[in-house]
Amino acid sequence: MRRFVPLLSVVLMLFAAAPVMGQSAGPNLYVCNQGEATISVIEMDSQSVVETVDLKARGFSPNAKPHHVLAEPNGEHWYVTLIGENTILKFNQENEIVGRITEFEVPGLMALHPTKPQLLVGRSMSAVNPPQSIGVINRDEMAVENEVDTFFPRPHPIAVRGDGGFGFVASLATNQLMGMNLETNETGLTRLGGDTQTLVQFAMTPDGNTLIAGGQRTGQLLFFDARKAPALSVTDTLQVEQQPWHPVITSDGQTAYVPNKTSHSISVVDLESRSVTTTIEGEGLAQPHGTVLSPDGQYLFVSNNNRKGTYTPTGDNPDAGTVTVIDTETHEIVKVLEVGTYPSGIGTVGGQRAGGLE
Question: Beta 176-181 vs 166-171: how paired, if at all?
Answer without folding.
Answer: antiparallel
